[in-house]
Amino acid sequence: MTTCYQLRNIKVNYGSHCALAIPTLDIPQGETTAILGQNGAGKSTLLSLLALLNQPSTGDVLLSGEPTSPITRLQRQRIGLVTQQPYLLPGSIRDNITLALRCQHIPKALHAERIAEALVATNLTHLAEQDAATLSGGELKRAALARVLAYRPDILLLDEPFSHLDSQHIQQLERLIQSFQTENRTIIFTTHDRLQAYALASKHIHLMHGQLTETPLLNLFHGHLTGECFETGKIKLFTTATKPSARHIAIDPRDIVLSRESHSDSSARNQLQGRLTQIAEDGHEVRLHIECGETFKVIISYESLKELQFQIGDWLWLSFKASAVKLL
Question: What is the pTM of this model?
Answer without folding.
Answer: 0.76
